[in-house]
Specification:
Layout lengths: L2 H16 L10 H27 L6 H19 L19 H15 L8 H28 L4 H28 L5 H25 L8 H21 L1
Helix pairs in contact: 1-5, 1-6, 2-5, 2-7, 2-8, 3-4, 3-7, 4-6, 5-6, 5-8
Length: about 240
């Protein structure tokens, strides 16, 4: 994996978290639009790029692994309470909560997303996955940083926690590289099934975002256009990937 890609993955998390200082906490409009765009983009690249790539291979259990990824994300949300798609944890004013459970759940989420980022897929597919992770991580990082501040973390400590989260996707990629280099036989099946798990995660997160972006499951015209833009950008990316 290109070192530059690792840098981009880390830098976008830090940059996304830093947006919390630019956006008023009581103004959630921009966050909702970012979530709507990222959700539409994720579901777009999933169906236009990742799903065709995985199911074009001899992988008879790929569908089960997509479901497994969906269920893993569902289980992770028992401890993250939906921070992956913009949910904020509601606590009493002045209450300080240790963010370790939240951070652990999101780190597992990010680690799994990095597993297929080694080899076994065309560079265009890998770059599309990286782009999906980057677009998705911006609103996640913004939400995560806001939650850390809400929990009473000082700015320095909040950035340390955010840095730990930022390292998880590159570490997942490095773990995949270790597995690849420690086995002599081809591991094409490993990357196919790990990508299937990531697809399941993406599908859960993206559909949750699209259904929960607006209260009462309603979209105004601005959010609808944002979703259309996200899908359009995913389509353009898919054209470049082929």
């Amino acid at each position: 994996m290109n070192i530059l890609i690792y840098f981009v993955l880390i830098a976008t998390v830090i940059a996304g978290g830093s947006l919390v200082f630019l956006i008023p906490r009581d103004d959630q409009k921009l966050l909702k639009l970012l979530l709507a765009f990222s959700g539409a983009f994720l579901i777009g690249i999933s169906f236009l790029i990742l799903v065709p790539e995985v199911f074009s291979r001899p992988a008879p259990l790929a569908g089960l692994f997509v479901i497994l990824g969906f269920l893993i994300q569902l289980a992770l949300e028992l401890i993250t309470e939906g921070a992956e798609h913009g949910h904020k944890h509601e606590h009493r004013e002045g209450e300080k909560v240790a963010p370790w459970l939240l951070l652990t759940g999101l780190c597992i989420h990010a680690f799994l997303e990095g597993m297929p980022l080694v080899s076994g897929f065309a560079k265009q597919v890998q770059h599309s996955l990286v782009l999906g992770i980057v677009v998705h991580n911006i609103p996640i990082s913004l939400t995560l940083m806001g939650l850390f501040m809400h929990y009473g973390c000082k700015t320095g400590k909040a950035f340390i926690y955010l840095g730990i989260f930022a390292l998880m996707t590159p570490l997942g990629s490095l773990a995949g590289l270790v597995i690849q280099n420690s086995v002599v036989t081809s591991l094409d099946f490993f990357f196919t099934y790990s990508m299937a798990v990531v697809i399941g995660i993406f599908l859960h997160v993206s559909t949750s975002i699209l259904f929960e972006t607006e209260e009462h499951h309603r979209y105004n015209l601005q959010k609808f256009l944002t979703v259309c833009l996200g899908i359009l950008v995913a389509y353009l990316v898919s054209l470049l990937a082929h």
